[in-house]
Each structure stands twice: as structure tokens, then as C-alpha cells.
Amino acid sequence: EKGGWSSFMAKEISEEPDAIANTLLGRVHDGTVSLSELDPLGADTLAGIERIIVIACGTAAYAGMLGAYAIEKWARVPVDVQLSHEFRYREPVIGDRTLVVSISQSGETMDTLMAVKYAREAGARTLSICNTQGATIPRESDAVLYTHAGPEVAVASTKAFVAQVTALYLLGLQLASIRGSLSPELIAEQVAELAAVPAKLSEVLQSGETISQLARWMADTRSVLFLGRHVGYPVALEGALKLKELAYIHAEGFAAGELKHGPIALIEPGQIVFVVVPSPRDPLSLHPKVVSNIQEIRARGARVIAIAEEGDAAVLPYADEVIRIPLAAPLFEPLLSVVPLHIFGMELAAAKGLDVDQPRNLAKSVTVE
Ligand code: F6R
Hints:
The protein has helices at about 10-15, 15-25, 45, 60-75, 85, 110-120, 135-140, 160-180, 185-205, 210-215, 230-245, 285-300, 335-350; strands at about 30, 30-35, 50-55, 80-85, 100-105, 125-130, 145, 225-230, 250-255, 270-275, 305-310, 320-325. It is α/β, with parallel strands linked by helices. The protein has a 5-stranded parallel β-sheet, with helices on both faces. α12 links the parallel β10 and β11. α4 (about 60-75) packs antiparallel against α11 (about 230-245). The structure holds fructose -6-phosphate. The site of fructose -6-phosphate has 15 residues, from α4 and α11. The site of fructose -6-phosphate (F6R) has 15 residues, from α4 and α11. It is found in: Cytoplasm. Homodimer. Its EC number is 2.6.1.16.
């Protein structure tokens, strides 16, 4: 039940820190990861995996994109993310050294189920990341790693998303440990980062009022753009999807580096653009590049809302609003920066008087192809 919240979605956003903490529970100890759920796949098989293909739809696919950055970096295995409904029609190159990881909150999405069956018949190993105990997709897979977000009722996925990312990061660290691609010290460092996320996320939830104010100001907006780079890119896509499905506003997410290859032509005075800003401490040095993107769009009249790390002063001269997130290592920032966008989508829909739990034309699980 909603338990005093205005909607299931509001309740589920408030549960995002717990969704992460519960997905970690019993799987991390003293700086190590142990996923006994992967046993059916066999450690030798996992050590010999040459390629990972992640299949999912919608928000789950964006979680998959984040997982791909982490798994490639930590386990040094190539990872592709493919939409379930596109996957089998491209005649994918699959063998017994391919691990196909499906992600589905409901575990019933027909497109993803059909993709899993296709992968299994083609000889791949299959792992399901799923939030619903005993659902069809986990039953059709060789192994299952459950996310422990608890039942998600609102049509738009929120807490399941952060739990999916958490499960993928655990998978990346477990693979890195099996394959020896990360030292135990580095694994322990990532585990500590992951374990610190729920408390940081609780801080982010405190900024809810600022975001709902922003949303009320923007209730008449017809178009919103979202920019992000590296792990900020899937966050931008997720922010845009939420706005489409909940507030029926045209929204698009772009990789910030693509701006000058086309999308910058969309910028006209008053265009609202959310920018997910990487940390200035980021070893990849993406921060100045994104700040320069902000300058470019601001010079063309965009209204910029930056989601930036606490203390990052470089964005201040160019942003109309700054939403702050606590310090975290780059791969963990998306778990913090995505939540203001979940709140924004919900609040904008509410400001328009829409039903945030049951957007038009959508169903919680899509059981037809
Ligand atoms: C967006 C949303 C959808 C689902 C997608 C996959 O907020 O909820 O995009 O993420 O339909 O659903 P599952 O994870 O159940 O396979």
C-alpha cells in the first residue's frame, strides 16, 4: 500500500536507497563479492566467457548500459547492450562462450523472454537479472540474480532501475574476481563505494522540494533535452524516457559529445536542457568537456539545469539551476544523479494533474511482442 505517500511512484522513489542496500545484502562481505546465484553457470565457464550481451527493454536497457561500462572496465570482457526486440533479428554472433544477461523487473516482458530463448537455443549461457521471484524469464534462464527492490507497482520503473545497476555492478566485480582482472584491493574499493551509495542517495532525496518547484515552473514546457557523457549518457536517456511516459512531454537524451553533430541545431532561446555533469575529480577529465557543452548551449539561449557534484563551482556561471549530488567515484555517480530525474518526471506529471502511477497507453509488464 501507499502508506501515506501521494502515489506508489513517490513511495518507490523514497525506497531507492533501500533497493540498493537490499540488493547488496548478503552478497558483499569484508570487501569481497560472493554471488552463489552464479554457481549454476560454473566458475570455469565464467572465467572463459569471451563476450557478454545484455538484453532488455526501456529503463532496464539503460541500467544495462551502465552495467556495460562497469563490467568492461572491471572484468575486461566486451559487453554489448541490445534491445530485446532487435536482438534476434540481427542474427547475433553467439557461442558457448557468450553470456547473455537479460534484465527485467517483471520477468515477464515477452520481447526479452523470446530473446532469452533464442540465445539459449543458439548455445549461449543465460543469466537473468529480475525483480520478481519465480517469474518466467528467470525460469527460462541458466541462472538468476534477483534484485531486491521489493514489488514495484507504479508503471514507471524507479527503484528497480537502481537495483538492476547494483546487481550488474556486483556481477562485474564477481567476474573481475574470477578472472583476476582487478586486485582484491581494487575490488574492496569498489565494494566500499557501492555500500556507501544508499546513505548518499538518502541525502539526494532531501533535494526533492527544489525539484518539485522546478517541475511546477515547467508545467507548460513542450520540450526538454537531457545531455550526459560516459555514464551520464544512460542517465540522460532515462531522464528523457521518464518525462515522455509520465508527463507526455517531448524529451530526448543525447550523448553530450553528439551535440555538435546535429542536436545543437535544436537549441533556441528558452529551450530547457538538463545536463548531467561529471565530477571535476573524474580521472577521465570529462568535466571541462561537459562544461564547455554547457557554455555552447547557454550562448544559444538554453535554460540549463545542471546536476553536479557538491562543491563544483565551474558550472555556477552557466547554469540557471544546480541540483547537487554527493561525491562519489565516476561509475557510482549515476546511482545518485538519476534520482532527481525520477523525481522531476513524477513532479512534472503531478503538476499537469496526470496520474503518475498509471500513465496513458502503458502497462506495467508488456506480455506481447
Ligand atoms: C520505464 C519502464 C519501462 C520498462 C520496460 C521493461 O519507466 O518502466 O521502460 O523498464 O518495459 O520492463 P521489465 O523490466 O519488466 O522487462
